[in-house]
Amino acid sequence: MLEHERQARQPLHIHAEFDVDAAQPVNDADIGTVLDYRQLRAALIDEAGQAHTDLLETLVARSLARILQDFPAVQSARIRICKPQAFDDCAAVCIEQSRTRAAS
């Protein structure tokens, strides 16, 4: 953990992929027939902004747990969170994890 990271907020880049059941019928005129990615985005932003987190691994794991808890239509998710300002000599430092919903 870098001391300068504890002193000030840092920008994050969040990349997320979600798998849903594509066999469900979709009505192009009804957003309710698909997974509304605006709600997914809001949940990820909320999770990232709740409190200071020292490790990206922790934030990624919390984000995955939140998505699978709050969005039952998501069967699996892959989330990568990057810190573009972690080091001056590289584009970003990223952690990526994936999780699949437990079969019921």
- In terms of DSSP E residues, the strand content is 15-25%
Low-confidence stretches: none
Strand order of the largest sheet: 1-2-3
Q: Please state the CA-atom Rg, rounded to the nearest Å.
A: 16 Å
Number of domains: 1
Itemize the secondary structure elements and their pairings.
Layout: H1 3-7, E1 13-19, H2 37-49, H3 56-70, E2 76-83, E3 93-100
Antiparallel strand pairs: 1-2, 2-3
Helix pairs in contact: 2-3
Structure report:
With 104 residues, this protein is an alpha+beta fold. The protein has one domain (3-100): GTP cyclohydrolase I, C-terminal domain/NADPH-dependent 7-cyano-7-deazaguanine reductase, N-terminal domain (GTP Cyclohydrolase I, domain 2), CATH 3.30.1130. Helix content is 32%, strand content 22%. It is built from three helices and three strands. The protein has helices at 3-7, 37-49, 56-70, and strands spanning 13-19, 76-83, 93-100. A three-stranded antiparallel β-sheet has the order 1-2-3, covered by helices on one side. Helix 2 crosses helix 3. It is elongated, with a radius of gyration of 16 Å. The termini are far apart.
